[in-house]
Amino acid sequence: MTSLLSSQCAKVIAIDGPSASGKGTIAERIATLLNRDYLDSGALYRLTALYAQQSQIDWTNETQIAHLASTLPANFIAGKILLNNQDVTVDIRNESIGMGASKIAAFPAVRMALLQRQRDFLTEKGLVADGRDMASVVFPNAELKIFLTASAQVRAKRRALQLGLPVNGVQFQQILTDIEKRDVADQSRVVAPLKPVAEAHILDTSFLNIQESVQKILDWYRIIEK
Ligand code: DC
Question: Where does 2-214 sit in CATH, by number?
Answer without folding.
Answer: 3.40.50.300
